[in-house]
Write a structure and sequence with these properties.
Layout lengths: L1 H23 L8 E5 L6 E3 L1 H9 L9 E7 L5 H8 L4 H7 L7 E5 L2 E9 L9 E9 L2 E6 L4 H11 L7 H35 L7 H11 L5 E2 L9
Parallel strand pairs: 3-7, 4-8
Antiparallel strand pairs: 1-2, 1-3, 4-5, 5-6, 6-7
Helix pairs in contact: 1-5, 5-6
Length: 236
């Protein structure tokens, strides 16, 4: 079973990487991509212009209607666009520029702000940690990253495949579920890396560098999720 699974995983990873690379270098104003969710319907891909129309339209809109907008922090126009068309808590912008390593999820008025860590698609010992910051509001999900983020792209693939999401909080819940799956994959791959090291140590043939061991420890040093308030009490 394992022998048959690895090639499929590699193909999925390559496809995901190609999809992300096509959009990561966005130089436009606004999001890299966005989706419009309607009740009990698959989401529709929307342009930045359509997102502005939605965000600036008068009235409350349809029940259970919301957007998911994704931004690249490498685009200097992203933050000004967000401040112009959305009212997001300052904790979200602080999280964008924070150097704190801990994963966190907190409520701020009618919004939830999450800062979540991931790894880049091709897991290697020297792969940098990638971080995504999200803001969840009743009618919009905003996500932003500086590097390609595997869990976000997996979730986007589910949306493109027609998965129906009824609310922004369902987007966040699915992201955490997919993130857990990513962590399982990382642990499995790390075990395969550790095995030869252990054999060398037992045989007293120590050829593993300290930097390699330190990189592995860094990749596995995941901070526990700190939830300041229960999710079920948010955005009700």
């Amino acid at each position: 079973m394992v022998g048959n699974k690895l090639p499929n995983d590699l193909m999925v990873t390559q496809t995901v990487t190609q999809n992300i690379d096509a959009t990561s270098g966005s130089d436009q104003d606004g999001p890299i991509w966005g989706y419009h969710f309607l009740p009990n319907q698959p989401a529709q891909l929307i342009t930045s212009e359509k997102a502005v129309e939605f965000l600036t339209a008068p009235g409350p809109g349809l029940p259970e209607e919301f957007l998911w907008l994704h931004f690249s922090l490498s685009n200097v126009a992203s933050e000004p666009w967000l401040r112009r068309y959305l009212t997001l808590p300052e904790t979200f912008y602080e999280s964008l520029h924070s150097d704190v390593d801990a994963t966190h999820l907190e409520q701020d008025a009618d919004a939830m702000v999450a800062r979540i860590h991931d790894v880049l698609f091709d897991f290697t010992f020297d792969a940098p940690i990638a971080t995504t910051t999200l803001c969840i509001k009743p009618r919009v999900v905003v996500s932003a990253h500086a590097r390609p983020w595997r869990s976000i792209d997996q979730l986007r693939a589910e949306v493109q495949a027609g998965q129906v999401f009824r609310s922004p909080i369902e987007i966040l819940a699915r992201l955490f579920r997919d993130q857990a799956s990513v962590l399982v994959d990382i642990v499995r791959k790390s075990k395969r890396q550790v095995g030869p090291m252990e054999q060398q140590l037992l045989a007293k043939r120590i050829s593993v560098s300290r930097s390699e061991l330190g990189s592995l420890r860094r990749m596995l040093n995941w901070q526990p999720l700190s939830v300041n308030r229960p999710i079920e009490h948010c955005l009700c």
